[in-house]
Amino acid sequence: MAAKIIDGKVIAAEIRTEVKADVGRLKQAGLTPCLAVVLVGKNPASRSYVGSKVRACEETGITSLKIEIAANAKEQDLLDQIDKLNRDINVHGILVQLPLPHHMDEERVTERIDPAKDVDGFHPENVGKLSIGLDGLTPCTPSGVPELISRSGLSLSGKHAVIIGRSNIVGKPLMNILMQKGEKANCTVTCCHSGTDHLANYTRQADILIAAIGVPEFVTAGMVKDGATVIDVGINRVDDSEHSRGYRLVGDVAYHDVRDVAGAITPVPGGVGPMTVAMLMKNTVKATRMISGV
Ligand code: GUN
Q1: Residue 12 is assigned to a structural domain of this protein
Q2: What positions carry a catalytic annotation?
């Protein structure tokens, strides 16, 4: 039987609608959530991501501040800008789009953001809170994964989730999210990575398989158990002269191959991607509520 296609565009739109209603309630209480997005340089992919974040703010009623800093600016200029946003009582969320130019230290920049406004959930304080199950701000892309699964009518509790990839942005936080107690988690989690021997032995045991490695079409049908839920976090540009822009987007999963084996699967694009922005909107509202005590 063909796999169920998990439509991230539809689920993300559903979440944005919920966020919009929540923003409406906050506005009635005299509070307008505000997200500051900082873009350093002119990386085309980063510009495009920042554009979709600003558009999502417009759609949900969140105020957005887009701050552009030249690629050759000093790291101190960026830190000063963050300090200013940390002090601004009208700003509830701060996001510095990554990657940064090589002369800037991403760790130092991330740690400068007030953890209460850290809507990316990358600050060590939020990373620590997530790992011990305390309420904080959680990274957007991994937070979208259980939403995609549960809102598709599939359960997570008690399932074996196998993650491929141990990045700080996806793999590690996702491990912590999926192993927490709770309806949309409570999984048994295995995290595989580039150092894993006999990878397919693990992936074939997954009820839920999540690929977050950044290698185009790495996961093939032989690595997937019949009926498994397959979540593809990868977004890779592959040269393709048949496309007008010269490339096409593919995930970390060989989609056409794996969908014949999987029970459910996310496409690329249109799976995990749209969820990141939706979860960012949700985090911005959460930060607004936490900061304001509403
Ligand atoms: N670059 C790629 N993904 C992300 C993300 O989730 N947050 C930020 N700030 N930059 C990114």
Answers
A1: no
A2: 53, 97, 120
Mutate to test the pocket of ligand 1, among 39, 118, 169 (most ligand atoms within 8 A of CB): 169
Residues 39 and 155 in one domain: no
The pLDDT, as a whole number, for residue 2 is 87
Q: Nearest residue CA, atom 4 of ligand 1?
A: 98
Q: How far is the CA of 97 from the centre of ligand 1 (A)?
A: 5
What are the pLDDT digits (tens) for 27-84?
999 999 999 999 999 999 999 999 999 999 999 999 999 999 999 999 999 999 999 9
Residue 6: band (very low, low, confident or very high) from pLDDT cuts 50, 70, 90 = very high
Q: Is 123 within the bounds of a domain?
A: no
The DSSP secondary structure of 126-143, one letter per residue, reads HHHHHHTT------HHHH
What is the pLDDT at residue 1? 75
Q: Are residues 195 and 261 in the same domain?
A: yes
Residue located nearest, by CA, to atom 8 of ligand 1: 97
Residue 292 lies in a domain: no
Residues 105 and 145 in one domain: no
The answer to the question of residue 286 being in a domain is: no
Ligand 1 atom with the smallest distance to the CA of 276 is 6
CB distance 255 to 216 below 8 Å: no
What total of structural domains would you count in the chain? 2
Which residue's alpha carbon is at the smallest distance from atom 3 of ligand 1? Answer: 98
**CA distance linking residue 205 with residue 219, whole number of Å:** 14
Q: Which helix (H) or strand (E) holds 64?
A: strand 63-69
CB-side neighbour CA atoms (13 Å) of 213: 21
Return the structure tokens found at 257.
């191959």
**Contact indicator for 174, 163 with CB cutoff of 8 Å:** yes
Per residue in 216-275, pLDDT (tens digit) is 999 999 999 999 999 999 999 999 999 999 999 999 999 999 999 999 999 999 999 999
Q: 148 and 44 in one domain?
A: no
Q: Which domain, by its residues, includes 176?
A: 140-273
